[in-house]
Amino acid sequence: MNEPTTQQTTPLVVHQPTPISPTAVHAAPVVPVQPGPVPTVASVVLPDGRVVTGYAVEPTRPEPVISKPAVSRAAVNVALGGIGFLAVCGGLLLLTTFITALTALLTQLITLAAVIFGGWIAVQVLGANRHQGGTTVHIRKAVIKRNHFHG
After folding, report:
1. Do 34 and 20 form a contact (C-beta atoms < 8 A)?
2. Strands 51-54 and 42-45
3. Distance of CA 4 to CAs 1, 7, 84, 85, 117, Å?
4. Quick count: other Cβ atoms within 10 Å of Cβ 39?
5. How many C-beta atoms lie closer than 10 Å to residue 56's C-beta?
6. How far is CA 83 from CA 79, 80, 87, in A?
7. How far apart are CA 22 and CA 30, in angstroms?
8. pTM across the whole model
9. Furthest-apart CA pair in the chain: how many Å?
């Protein structure tokens, strides 16, 4: 009973399929097109006797990256020049505002100093007559004394 038995093996037949090209996407409406000849089907017989049949599918390749057009140097220079011009104008506006504010401050300080100094001088001049150590002359008495009226 233990005689070796010979199994009949069938040769492995592999059919190479022809891949189906993907349809191109157009802006125009898609019109169905009948495919050409039907591609061949690959069949593989597994060791346990099962047969697997199907088409070989290639992995999809991503679209190539479209390079951006180069920006001209003239456009870059014009843009940078415009930004620089605006920065200078803004700086001059701020500088003008600062100078105006500084001038107003100095004007107010000079006016304050003039008022204080003028007040000090007015006190010195007007206060000198009141507190002077000279002789007080009463005109009425002097006239009477001059005419020899003694009273």
Report:
1. no
2. antiparallel
3. 9, 9, 96, 99, 136
4. 15
5. 13
6. 6, 5, 6
7. 13
8. 0.34
9. 189
DSSP 67: P
Report the amino acid identity of residue 125.
V
- Name residue, tokens 């346990």: 48
What's the sign of the alpha-carbon dihedral 19, 24, 30, 31? negative
3-state secondary structure of 8: coil
* Tens-digit pLDDT profile for residues 62-117: 888 888 778 889 999 999 999 999 999 999 999 999 999 999 999 999 999 999 99
Copy the structure tokens of residue 108: 């107010």
Which helix (H) or strand (E) segment is 96 a member of? Answer: helix 73-130
Amino acid at 62: P
Please give the Cα distance from 90 to 19 (Å, whole number).
66
